[in-house]
Amino acid sequence: MPEVSIVLVEPLYDGNIGFTARVMKNFGFTRLVLVNPCPLGDDAVMRASHARDVLDNARWMTVDEVYREFDFVVATTGEVSKSVCTPMRLPYYTPTEVRETVADIDGTVAILFGRENWGLSNEELKRANLICTIPTSEVYPILNLSHAVGILCYELANLPRGTYPLAGPTEMESLYRHLDAFLDRIDHPDFKRENTMILIHRVLGRTKLTTREVSTLHGLMRRTEWHLENKE
Amino acid sequence: MPEVSIVLVEPLYDGNIGFTARVMKNFGFTRLVLVNPCPLGDDAVMRASHARDVLDNARWMTVDEVYREFDFVVATTGEVSKSVCTPMRLPYYTPTEVRETVADIDGTVAILFGRENWGLSNEELKRANLICTIPTSEVYPILNLSHAVGILCYELANLPRGTYPLAGPTEMESLYRHLDAFLDRIDHPDFKRENTMILIHRVLGRTKLTTREVSTLHGLMRRTEWHLENKE
């Protein structure tokens, strides 16, 4: 199975961090990443129970570092923020669909979970390969953080060993830079730019490009650019 | 979808009862049944959060009452007690298989969850239609109670409306009594009796018999009994 890390972005209650460590270990996951968490006190240790090791081995990173290090990043949003219908948060995948999508990835996968009160910011979401929303009741859609993590871990457990070599984050970044420059080249209006780049990000993100495919896309753009030059 | 109730048997920590109420409501379930629970204090109310109504409307029953009232009863066991390999706890179904099995039931379904420390007793398990075990890591298989409930609720959410009319618990009980009497009639040894009856229970339990099928089975046994009489 792909190497899956669970990333908690600015969790507010250390009890939830402890419960997250526990339910991760329950399903065989040990890689916990904490982004600027609340202080870890007795609640964290108590709720982690026999997953103390997961808690102690947690890595502290920034969201930016996560996007730069991991090959495939899934950002989770609640039904609520989904209803705040920005292109940023759509399309969303269910945990089962996420499982199917990452199943064959041979690389590192990070799953981002936002703050208990307002989740992930658009800034934190927009670079994600995939958006995941757990289908919940409209009456009371707010899952406890550790319950949400538990359901993702349950779905992702026992995935077959990945065999799908992904292009790394650096390659993808240079592709996106090339695309951005290409949009300049064809006078794509600035005011539309961000949303267009986000859309491109969503599409290419979930496409799981290989290194070969990335260089082919560069090639196609270079070829187009050459013809644009030589028309003038 | 079938009318699903979550039954907590002698839960030890009221925080888990609160979290259970919350995660139930997150997935649209409102029927909570408590069997001789610990006192419900602030932790229960706090963790229930906006699912206070589920907590307040919880019914108090005995395990025996549950088996007498509900059409289909699923008993959950951990990987651990599964490894205590009694016929009582086998075969076990995964939450996905439980979902598929109860999907078309038009009746009442109860899902039993045992105590945090040692789960359900054999006595509490043996009358169940189905045994369910959530596949977990061997390293740390003990799920928090509310995480286990959450995963079952997540799987069972959004089930289609059931269309499969089940024979009620009373009809099934009389069938099992008839079968037991029939075993007497064919001199089935007492020392094997309990395990045999449990096996029959497991088989007919998951078969989801209709009223018609139950009476047919009675008929077949009566016919056999008649021939047994008239041979002598």
From TrEMBL, chains A, B:
Belongs to the class IV-like SAM-binding methyltransferase superfamily. RNA methyltransferase TrmH family. One of its GO terms (biological process) is methylation. Residues 4-154 form the tRNA/rRNA methyltransferase SpoU type domain. It comes from the Archaea. The keyword Methyltransferase applies. GO terms for molecular function: methyltransferase activity. It holds the Pfam family SpoU_methylase. Keywords: Methyltransferase, S-adenosyl-L-methionine, Transferase. The keyword Methyltransferase applies. This is RNA methyltransferase. InterPro entries: Alpha/beta_knot_MTases (IPR029028), RNA_MeTrfase_TrmJ/LasT (IPR004384), SpoU_MeTrfase (IPR001537), tRNA_m1G_MTases_N (IPR029026). It comes from Methanoculleus palmolei. Transmembrane segments: none annotated. Signal peptide: none annotated.
